[in-house]
Amino acid sequence: MAHIITKPGKVISPELLAELSALTSTESQVIVHCIYNSPVGDDGIRIWPSTYLFDHHSDHVSSLVHAENITMYPTWTWTKKGDNTFTLIFSGLPKSCRVFDLIEDCNGSPGSFRVTAIKRTKDDVYYISI
Prior knowledge:
- The protein has one domain (about 5-130).
- The strands form two sheets. Strands 1-10-2-7-5-4-8-9 form an eight-stranded mixed beta sheet, with helices on one face.
- The chain has one helix and ten strands.
- It has one helix at about 15-25, and strands at about 5, 30-40, 45, 50-55, 60-70, 75-80, 80-90, 100-105, 115-120, 125-130.
């Protein structure tokens, strides 16, 4: 089950964090760092381009604009055993947004994930475990 991480361990490279932090301040993009723990390795993971953020207080949808360290559907990324990290970058949320959901819309295919009721932060950088 996917959930929000409030204090992640060292799982994202400091260089990538600095680069992506610049995007949130200059382009108002939302950064979501994800950890997928593969119990056996050799799992196939991918992200659907239809993944989005949904604002609880409006009908605004922030679309996925880039994915780092994971492939887009239909191509698979093969995992190693243990923690595998990837980053999703979304278009900005409205300034009025305080709570939103992250939804992977897989067009009815199994394996999608959803993280609900994410509280907005000043820096628009989030960490989740899938």
